[in-house]
Amino acid sequence: MTAPTIPVAVRRLPHAADLALPAYATEGAAGMDLLAAIGAPVVLAPGARMLVPTGLCIALPPGYELQIRPRSGLALKHGITLPNAPGTIDEDYRGEIGIILLNTGEAPLTIERGMRIAQGVLAPVVRAGWREVETLDETARAAGGFGSTGFGGSGPGRSGAA
């Protein structure tokens, strides 16, 4: 089954004129690659972060966001991630999409023009309508926090705080 195509208006800025628009690498890919629209290579040192421009501005349709996620290959091979992952491009944002990269690896990484630096996933947005109450329904987990369901930490038969 092929996923539906949602039209998204995109404006390519002059510094991205020769770069490809975001694209899905395979028929079943959920994310589309976003490219670095930089004029010259830049080095991302271990422990450092930087904002890398994509040269793209978009107008999302109402009820959608563009989630910005790390690329698994960059994460595994170089320790490159996004410190705010997933980042969100809201439907009413019209500025340039910038990608915050963080080098958690042990070696510097050179970011080059046109390099695939992140992926964007178009996602529907559901908005909460808060309804304040005096009590909440009971569950087996109750107020058990981090690790309370069996991944270390506290919970039934374990000691320690949540």
Automatic annotation (TrEMBL):
Q: What class of enzyme is it?
A: hydrolase
Could you confirm whether the keyword Nucleus appears in this record? no
Residues annotated as binding substrate: 71-73, 84, 88-90
Q: Which CDD domains match?
A: trimeric_dUTPase
Q: Output the superkingdom of the source species.
A: Bacteria
Reported cofactor(s)? Mg(2+)
Q: Could you state a single Gene Ontology molecular function term?
A: dUTP diphosphatase activity
Q: Which reaction does it catalyse?
A: dUTP + H2O = dUMP + diphosphate + H(+)
The record ties this protein, via InterPro entries, to: dUTPase, dUTPase-like, dUTPase-like_sf, dUTPase_trimeric
EC id: 3.6.1.23
Report domain dUTPase-like positions. Answer: 20-150
Q: Which SUPFAM superfamilies match?
A: dUTPase-like
Q: What does this protein do?
A: This enzyme is involved in nucleotide metabolism: it produces dUMP, the immediate precursor of thymidine nucleotides and it decreases the intracellular concentration of dUTP so that uracil cannot be incorporated into DNA.
Family, similarity comment: Belongs to the dUTPase family.
NCBIfam families this protein is in?
A: dut, PRK00601.1
- Name it: Deoxyuridine 5'-triphosphate nucleotidohydrolase
Q: What is the lineage of its organism?
A: Bacteria, Pseudomonadati, Pseudomonadota, Alphaproteobacteria, Acetobacterales
